[in-house]
Design brief:
The chain contains nine helices and nine strands. With 193 residues, it is of the alpha/beta class. It has one domain: Trna Endonuclease, Chain: A, domain 1. It is globular, with a radius of gyration of 17 Å.
């Protein structure tokens, strides 16, 4: 069972797109020391049997922040003051899987062990975001840490509306998607302004 609802929605979204998924996959860097002693996890990893290249494997990190994410603010902190503590955590720790080369290498190794692929799409799933997602997707530190990969941001609205559109009458993967099926069967739907 996925603990975070955004993780469940993201997993349902990628399943509807044809990916076979696994969630909460533990990994850590090969490096030794207290900064690397505790495992992190890949929220979702998925493999699509019919796709190739970077679309064959997706890796998803979910941030279910109620207020959403300001792309410019997060990138500014990573560029100019990654050690600064905000909301109990530094930017470099909050984004370690994207920003810290040791954690990045550990993540890439785990993805390769599980999928046999070195190149994949690394997707950040958020409730919502402000700013230009291209800034995040093309941020130099990230692209250096993930050569040959694609970085992408996806928001809750896109995931919900896509799931809703792709639902059939076959029972859905999760309780959340099943609820969306029942709403649809009853003549309703989810809309965004």
């Amino acid at each position: 069972m996925v603990n975070d609802i955004l993780e469940q929605i993201a997993e349902d979204y990628f399943r509807e797109l044809g990916y076979f998924t696994q969630h909460n996959v533990k990994y850590k860097p090969k490096e030794k020391g207290p900064a690397f002693s505790v495992h992190s996890d890949i929220d979702i990893i998925g493999v699509h049997p019919k796709k190739s290249g970077v679309e064959k494997v997706i890796v998803v990190s979910c941030k279910s922040w109620q207020g959403g994410m300001s792309i410019e603010k997060e990138l500014d902190m990573l560029k100019n003051n990654p050690e600064k503590i905000t909301n109990g955590k530094s930017s470099e720790k909050r984004w370690k899987e994207f920003f810290n080369k040791y954690w990045t290498e550990g993540l890439r190794q785990k993805v390769f062990e599980m999928s046999g692929q070195k190149n994949f799409t690394f997707c950040l799933a958020v409730t919502k975001y402000t700013g230009k997602k291209e800034l995040w997707e093309n941020f130099e530190s990230f692209t250096e840490n993930f050569p040959g990969c694609r970085i992408e941001i996806i928001d809750l609205e896109t995931m919900i509306l896509t799931i809703q559109k792709l639902l059939t009458t076959t029972p859905a993967h999760s309780e959340l998607s099943r609820l969306m099926q029942l709403i649809k069967a009853g003549g309703g739907g989810i809309t965004y302004r």
